[in-house]
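tool=predict chain=A
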Amino acid sequence: MTARFRADRGQILPLYIWLTGILLFAALAFFVFAQAASARNGAQSAADAAALAAAQDARDELMDRLGTGIGHEEDWLRWLDGRLPEGAGVDAAARELAAQNDSTVQGGAQQVMRDGYPGFEVAVRTNYTVGESIIPGTEGQHARARAVAVIQPRCDVDLDADPEKPVELNCDGQTVNIDPTEFDPDDLPDASVLFAVHLAE
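tool=predict ok
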């Protein structure tokens, strides 16, 4: 009886070692996937921040054009529809926010249209890698992601409005009055009142 028990124990030991090895490998593999997911999330956060920074910078340019155009340009109302200034310089803002998230913008911020709204698409690559693991090559693998942020006009303008006379804007329920004949740029409300900036995808 004792000899038989020892024989069974001798057969179970290799099986135990084999199962332990499998469980250890599975745990290490799961850790690798967790590392990759963390890097991917970091890249997506960097892309989101960079795209939003580009759109917000463009919105600031729109506000500048609006402030200088009222009372001086016959078609100053066109800036309220969110059309971006030609050659809007937003790359610096996108790159700065990406760098703050330890990532690099790939190819600059590209002007795009999403759901009828102008915006910017930004692609980034993390400066850090997934890290060393049991899977070869991960130590040199960078995470990549892209995001799009748009500028959405919030104000309704009467199609018959005369840009040379006082204009009343309805900005999502908030009334904004602009008189081109007595306009001061400081009279403009905060940019967020006239334009919303948000991620599109």
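The mean pLDDT is 79. The longest helix spans residues 2-69.
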